[in-house]
Design brief:
2 copies of one chain form a homodimer.
Chain A lengths: L1 E2 L2 E2 L2 E3 L3 H5 L2 E9 L2 E2 L2 H14 L7 H12 L5 E8 L16 E7 L6 H5 L2 E10 L14 H7 L7 E8 L4 E4 L3 E6 L2 E5 L9 H12 L4 E4 L3 H5 L3 E6 L3 E8 L2 E2 L4 H12 L3
Parallel strand pairs in A: 8-9, 8-15, 12-13
Antiparallel strand pairs in A: 1-2, 1-7, 4-5, 4-6, 6-7, 9-10, 11-12, 11-14, 14-15, 15-16
């Protein structure tokens, strides 16, 4: 682990990241010694920092630190946390605090291979995401909704939880973005009021553009999701998981999902 | 600063308090060597921990650590943070992680004496609080809404920001609870969908009970607030501040507020 460029596994107990969740993060995959989709991730980190009026580490020195972190390693999960650092007491962010950078490398989680080929079972979460347009889309450190949602099931056969908002709109998985296919059209939920807009979601949209497929961002609810031809989840670690079962609905075939999965796994940055 | 009972000013960079804001906190005042309203604060800490399925430090050892922290000091701000500790990667809380306790002592902030006697000016925040019944009332570590709201003004003549929710309901200050007086009746916003229910709010309700005054918890909006006879804010550090000005409305007299303030400052636990 590197904290502000120094080998360390601790941070100041007065850091605003701890006290208020005042920061953002990214989770990347290291594969064959390479940080997958680094340009996408850096761009998103920059956008998220800007949304919180946080100063973003400059790309060259951040990448140099990441290379130091993963040196000699081939596979793993890299997490980048940027907080507003330590300042005077109180919520108001002062502009002259130095941000804290925390870079960590962990082993890649091991998932059953069938999750990627046959698909996964989802739990429909009881917790509803709240609407906060000022924070929507941002991968910030206020993640108690995800924690409470993930606490809802313990059956290891269930790979992910599906989150709706207060108006019954389908939004995302607890740690993934969701897409559905309907009559050859790709749809993904509108994340302007809640949810996290991930890098793999962006890449699926790039797939759609480069394959002349429409991809619409819109609101939809459970009946529409259950009527879809295919449903899948994406994030930077899992790649793409087709959804096999949700609320008793079974999807047996995932032809388009698997085609997108292949592209996600092999397309260059 | 004491971290898990040990003199330290740092915590693990893998702590869930940092990664997800997965924890709760309390801010208490130390006055004349005494932790004010400790029984109220511990009860609230216990309730908040329970709401997040966090195990709460036991009262006797927590108090012993607090006494060690403030030993020889007369005045200050004591902050207690309890997080779910460090665990395996991922949102799901495992039950067998040991919570982290962070106790810190800081100097008491100095506010103009006129804030307490003549009252304060408020900024009406543009940020609206989101509705999350699962987190409402809890003093948890997901405080980005407060950070963004507090960033809205820098005029030092403005003492606090007023927060509304998405439905235009008046909820609270960025770091205080709000009351209004209307025809001798005390009213305070319903916090079942957003906001933090503080210990001083509870104490104002105790004042109401012990003085045979009704205190109603209900929804109200700006026009009702601006039509109130008196408005005041409370928290454990400021005690009670009457509101002097909001959106051009001036309150010149605060007879009941000052009576409650006196009680809050002098009533025993």
């Amino acid at each position: 682990m590197l904290v502000n460029g120094v080998l360390s596994d601790s941070i100041s107990a007065a850091d605003r990241g701890l006290l208020y969740g005042d920061g953002v993060f990214r989770t990347l995959r290291l594969a064959r010694g390479k940080l997958l989709h680094w340009p996408h991730h850096y761009r998103k980190l920059q956008q998220d920092c800007a949304a919180l009026l946080l100063s973003c580490p400059d790309p060259r020195s951040l990448l140099a630190e990441l290379e130091q972190l993963v040196f000699g390693q081939a596979e793993g999960v890299v997490k980048i946390v940027v907080t507003r650092g330590s300042g005077i007491r109180g919520y108001a962010p002062t502009t002259h605090t130095a941000p804290t950078r925390i870079l960590s490398l962990s082993p890649l989680p091991v998932y059953p291979a069938l999750f990627s080929t046959e698909g996964v079972r989802l739990h429909l979460c009881g917790l509803r995401l709240s609407h906060q347009p000022r924070l929507a889309g941002i991968k910030h450190l206020n993640r108690l909704e995800n924690v409470l949602a993930a606490a809802e099931w313990s059956d290891t056969d269930i790979a992910e939880g599906l989150l709706l908002d207060d108006n019954d709109n389908v939004i995302e998985g607890t740690r993934s973005n969701l897409f559905m296919l309907r009559n050859n059209e790709l749809l993904t939920p509108d994340l302007s009021r809640c949810g996290v807009a991930g890098v793999q979601r962006e890449r699926v949209m790039e797939w759609a553009t480069s394959h002349n497929r429409p991809c619409r961002i819109e609101q939809f609810r459970m009946p529409e999701l259950l009527a879809a031809d295919e449903v899948f989840l994406v994030n930077s670690l899992i790649g793409l998981w087709p959804v096999r079962e949700l609320q008793g609905r079974i999807w047996g075939q995932h032809p388009v999902s698997l085609q997108i999965q292949k592209w996600l796994n092999h397309a260059p940055d």
